[in-house]
Amino acid sequence: MNINNVKIFDTTLRDGEQAPGCSMTLREKLKISQALNDLNVDIIEAGFPAASPGDFEAVKAIADQNLGATICGLARCNEDDIKKVYQAVKGSDKHRIHVFVATSAIHREYKLKMAKEEIIKNAVSSISLAKSLCDDIEFSPEDASRTELSYLAEVVSAAIEAGATTVNIPDTVGYTVPAEFDRLFQYLNKHVRDIKKITLSVHCHNDLGMAVANSLAAVNAGARQIECTINGIGERAGNCSLEEVVMAIKTREEYFNLSTNIKTERLYPTSRIVAGITGIQIPRNKAIVGENAFAHEAGIHQHGMLQNSSTYEIMRPSDVGLSKSNLVLGKHSGRHAFRKRVEELGFPCDDEEINRAFKEFKKLADAKKDIYDGDIEAIMMNADESSAGPWFLKSLKITSNTGELAKATVCLMDDNGNEKIKSSSASGPVNAAFQALEELTEVRLTLKKFDLHSPTIGADAQGEVSVNVEHKGQSYRGAGTSIDIVEAGSRAYLGVINRILRRQKQGLKSRPQNNNIHHAPI
Ligand code: KIV
Ligand code: ZN
Question: Is 243 in the pocket of ligand 1 (CB under 6 A)?
């Protein structure tokens, strides 16, 4: 049996990052790009360089690592965008320019105000320009699933003739259904002469919850590249989820007769890294990587599982990198055991990071009896923020009484050991602590969202707090962890304050976190 390979094109850093509240710092993007490379994705779409100087720098920094995966950047059909992508991605031995233009009647009439022929001309000249810079060119007719089939075939034919090596068919608004999408691909196979000469790709959004099903319909009909994101993050309801589509192909290999290059045992750690960085928590019942994905509660299921795990389990937890043991480490565990567990959980880290995380682990082990994998993951997720000053939380004292204002006394310390202390009273302990932090640092924030999540079980479980705030009209996100939820919130808040202060010191204008670039500048 000849098994065909499907390329996995990850767009977590481009389409995923465009989701509200998902934008990332350069450091976070680099970390995710390394995790994606370790996962062995074929192509990393690192961003949209023309969207802002920050986006350009991030794509360039990712490409300059020369990780091994192909690094791709997105461009509209214009000279400036295309040249910017080339400048940003060329540092990677394997690089790709991805150009797109909308083709559906609704986009032609209301967004582009361009006629059909004009769009084809624009696409052809842009692909030709991109081709003069780089061999690997992807073209996407945006809103393809709502484009007239005969016109779509015409556009795709022209794109191939102009030099596109991959043609991607996006279901931009998540509108199609599997049988209809299958017909669209069959139509293109039949009506586009040179379609066999290029890689046909699929890019689905999840507005009706069918992004994975539609992507699978496309590969069944001949697509050999799937565009997807970790945890399915992305515009609106998100994109096709990488972990779901990859495990569907692997688990039902006899049906699809396809394979991918993904190291599936890296799926769970990668999912945790992306959730930790974006603050978008994974629902418990999420397929593949949710907490309940491999949990069996019903007695009858447990009985079956004990006889033979395949009674109720179609994948092994270890296939996706879930090798959780319940109670892992304790107060007396040494650095070596800690490092080993961190690595088993899939966190790549250097000595400096391990040393910092080990100190946090020791503090936690003093305060909490049982240390679970979730605790270690939480420490690793926050290792970056808690180590970057200028201010560090030295102590936090809270007094609160029913019916009275809460009082927070916060002590901050800087790199040189200088301390500042402030007490504030407000309607609740979190409010009082945040007020004290603002007064101490003279950075005023508006809190937009406060999310609390517990990564493990038990009354002494840690709290992971993620905050979304606004500063001078721009959005920021921060995360913090502690067994004291006010302290976790304060760490998250201070993380944002520190980021703003660092940028002010560098003389940089703060970068907005919600630069919704997808449709705005097109
Ligand atoms: O959803 C979409 O159409 C896109 C394209 C730019 C590929 O993200
Ligand atoms: Zn998209």
Answer: no
